[in-house]
Amino acid sequence: MSLLPTNFETLKRRAKQSILPLLTPHLLKLRINTYAPYVGAGIKIDHISLDQGLCVVSMGLNSLNKNIVGTQFGGSLYSMVDPFYMIMLMHQLGSSYVVWDKSSHIDFVAPGHTKVTARMKVASSEIITIQELAKDGDAVFREYKVDIVDEQQKVIATVTKTIYIRLRKYSKSKNQTSRIDNLDGDS
Fold first, then answer.
1. Dist CA 55 CA 66 (whole Å)
2. Environment class of residue 78 by beta-carbon count within 10 Å: exposed (0-12), middle (13-18) or buried (19+)?
3. Are strands 155-167 and 140-149 parallel, antiparallel or unpaired?
4. Crossing angle for the helix pair 84-93 and 124-134, nearest 10 degrees?
5. What does the alpha-carbon distance between residue 65 and residue 58 come to, in Å, rounded to a whole number?
6. pLDDT attached to residue 171
7. Is residue 79 within 8 Å of residue 43, measured between CB atoms?
8. Residue 31: which pLDDT band, with cuts at 50, 70 and 90?
9. Reading across the β-sheet that carries 43-49, which strands appear in turn?
10. Computed over its alpha carbons, how large is the radius of gyration of the chain?
11. Distance between CA 4 and CA 57 in Å, rounded?
12. What is the DSSP track for the chain?
């Protein structure tokens, strides 16, 4: 009787290793695009490529994300970009690193009256820089800026994110896990 669960777990693990990498970007996009706070705010991932460190997110103006003066609500603007640098860095750096959001700042530049878009990118050269800075076990803090633009490419807001990165073996947060690794519902 104990052979069945063991064999089933082995089969499940092997299937996950061969099939899930092909589905992960699609499942991640689906999961985030159906996440209730994002659905309510009208936030949508238009494109995500974790391997290339690229994410494009948009948000139309609707009755659920308008503020009291009829423009894009600031909290929804920030939510558009909140998790994505952390997600991309966790994926590109791999499980040997702990990655956390450290701080954020949003600068509201102009009122948003139309659909807005944010394009976030983590270059491969940035990953090499992080690995070099972190190799001795020091905490690494990296700052990323992203502009949120309207349909005419006018900047509506600029978000600055500071991300904490450290080799897992040196981190007090070494038990941090990623729910992204468990897209099949095991989390």
1. 24
2. middle
3. antiparallel
4. 70
5. 13
6. 83
7. yes
8. confident
9. 43-49, 54-59, 116-121, 140-149, 155-167, 97-108
10. 19
11. 44
12. --HHHHHHHHHHHHHHHHHHHHHHHHHHHHHHHT-HHHHHHTEEEEEEETTTTEEEEEE---TTTB-TTSSB-HHHHHHHHTTHHHHHHHHHH-TTEEEEEEEEEEEE-S---S-EEEEEE--HHHHHHHHHHHTTS--EEEEEEEEEE-TT--EEEEEEEEEEEEEGGG-TTTT---GGGGTTTT-
Question: How far is the C-alpha of 124 from the C-alpha of 159, rounded, in Å?
Answer: 21
Place of tokens 């001795």: 136
- Nearest Cα to 129, choosing from 95, 163, 178, 171? 163
> Six-digit token pair at 4?
């069945």
Give the C-alpha separation, 119 to 48, whole Å: 10
- What would the pLDDT profile of 130-170 be if each residue is shown by its tens digit? 999 999 999 999 999 999 999 999 999 999 999 999 999 98
**Using H for helix, E for strand and C for coil, what is the string for 69-90?**
CCCECHHHHHHHHCCHHHHHHH
Q: pTM to 2 decimals?
A: 0.81
From CA 143, how far away is CA 166, in angstroms rounded? 15
The phi and psi torsions of 3 (rounded to 5 degrees) equal -70, -35
Degrees to nearest 5, angle at CA 51 with 41 and 139: 85
